[in-house]
Design brief:
By secondary structure, the chain is an alpha/beta fold. The protein contains 2 helices and 8 strands, in the order αβαβββββββ.
């Protein structure tokens, strides 16, 4: 029974469409999602230079669920931040790029969630 439950959860996750928000194309624009949708924000990051993107915790957590982040070496290195849209409304996602203790850059993504 436990295995069936795990398979069912994996099936539900696979059925959800995951949208990708690219850093250069969507920063500063309104990014629209539907309630329940999962989306990923991808930002270029080079670990060899000590670069690291961090999510600022100033977004409205009643509208978005932060599901975690990953680093991938593709395209020279990318940080991926995954979110689930919960309820309709507008909020902003703010990210800061740091190299060691220096702030190098920041990105803001406007998010609108519709029913």
């Amino acid at each position: 029974m436990k295995h069936l439950t795990i398979l069912f959860i994996l099936f539900l996750c696979a059925c959800n469409t995951v949208k990708t928000v690219e850093s250069e194309k969507n920063s500063g624009q309104i990014n629209t999602f539907k309630s329940g949708e999962i989306f990923i924000v991808r930002l270029p990051e080079i670990h060899e230079k000590g670069e690291n993107w961090s999510l600022q915790q100033n977004f409205n957590s009643t509208l978005l669920e932060y599901m975690g982040s990953n680093f991938h070496r593709r395209n020279g290195g990318e940080a991926e931040f995954t979110f689930r849209a919960i309820t309709p409304g507008k909020t902003e996602l703010s990210f800061v790029l740091r190299a060691y203790s220096d702030s190098l850059s920041s990105k803001v993504f406007c998010v609108e969630i519709q029913e």
